[in-house]
Amino acid sequence: xxxxxxxxxxxxxxxxxxxxxxxxxxxxxxxxxxxxxxxxxxxxxxxxxxxxxxxxxxxxxxxxxxxxxxxxxxxxxxxxxxxxxxxxxxxxxxxxxxxxxxxxxxxxxxxxxxxxxxxxxxxxxxxxxxxxxxxxxxxxxxxxxxxxxxxxxxxxxxxxxxxxxxxxxxxxxxxxxxxxxxxxxxxxxxxxxxxxxxxxxxxxxxxxxxxxxxxxxxxxxxxxxxxxxxxxxxxxxxxxxxxxxxxxxxxxxxxxxxxxxxxxxxxxxxxxxxxxxxxxxxxxxxxxxxxxxxxxxxxxxxxxxxxxxxxxxxxxxxxxxxxxxxxxxxxxxx
Length: 334
Description:
Helix-turn-helix domain-containing protein, alpha+beta, two-stranded antiparallel sheet, 15 strands, 334 residues, HTH_HxlR, transcription regulation, Arc Repressor Mutant, subunit A
């Protein structure tokens, strides 16, 4: 498949990297040394407004006024998010009324391919954040007619997969520095039109901050000790301590005595933390499909059971068949 060139604006610690692409359904080619596919993906899914805009787009919303009706979002925030998603190649801005300069935002193939990540976020929040479960829609698999939960499986051998079933790590373009968004922090959920909608509060706590996302990724790669998080990520110790505290309060990490010295605490993923695996892997899969680094992939994984490159596939737990985006129906909460 052909790839297209990308124009990249200057990057600074307080300025988000902007990737300007034409709305065509071809992967974007990234220049050497640039933020890699993982960092670009986290910059997109680490913003709750982006996720909510995409959720409604997958349900058929295309026009500015329709998003304003559906979401408690200000004009300024919606304008910025639509511009960003268009620059990322997720939307194509198309004039729908000739001569009137009226535009709508149509999902590209790249944008439609984000459905597994949004579905995984919904499933995780529905299962592990019960205080707002009633506000989330019910998902029905059109093929079998039943409500379902998505099960992560290996696309090569169709077996169900847990985090420990996959081995791997950084590829040619993979470093911690290149795998986090340029912005120091991402917008968190909050109240009011500009603060956030609060639909996915704990997801944002995990991926809505560049250091949170990095620490979570490091945990999936096997890091456990405070010093390892600090040294590998190059993060200030106060930030590492704060993020570890938040993860423990959320029940994503648990503290355990160190293997060498009991007074040196280590941090391990809980069942809730491990359950975030599909969100992480669907995001990585999407990013590396649509953003190609000159040096090669950022992350490379192998499924232990079959020995082949791991690509995640979501399966319906009710009928055990692979899910397709057009076969998923969202229904109001019961």
